[in-house]
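Re: the 183-residue chain
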Amino acid sequence: MPFHLSIVRGPHAGLDRADLKVRLEAMMRKRNLEVEEVSFLLTDDKQIHELNREYRGYDKPTDVLAFALTEGDVGPRDTGLLGDVIVSVPTARRQAREAKRPLVDELTMLLAHGLLHLLGYDHATVKEDRVMRAETDVLVAAAELASASKKKKARAPSKKRTVALAIAQRSPGAPPKKAPKKG
C-alpha cells in the first residue's frame, strides 16, 4: 500500500511518526486501498493558510485539505492515484485541546476525513455529512485498534527476556533453587 507521510514545518511536539504510519496503513487496509497512491502531509498553519487561500479562496488556515488527483469520470481506482491530504498540526492541536482529547486522536480523525474526500465522500448535505461521519468513525476505529495492537505487542516481554530476568535474579554462583516437595 503505497503512501507517503511527510511531516514538515515543525518540529511538532508529541507526534509519533511510526504510530501515525500504523494508523494510516490500517485506514487504507480498511478501505481496501492496496495499490492506490496517496500522500499525507502534516504541516503548519502558515502553509495550509496559503493553500486554502490559493485553491479554495478562503483567506484563513483550516484543519485539513484534500486534493484528489483525478476528477470527473476517471476515478482513483482507474489510475491508482488518490491524491494529497494536508493537515495543520497547530490547528489539530487546538481542536484536540478544545475537545479534551489527545492530539493523535484528532490527527487520526482529520487524516481519515481527508482520505474519504479523496475517495469521493463529501458533507455538503445533512445526509452526506451523516454518511461521511459514520465512515470516518469506522476508519478511526480501525486505526486505533491497529495502534493499540502494535503497542501491546511492543510491551509484551519476549520469552528470552523472561528467562534472562529469572537467571539474573539468582546470586552469582548459587545453585538453582529446587522446587519444594509436595508432601
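The first strand starts at residue 3 and ends at 7.
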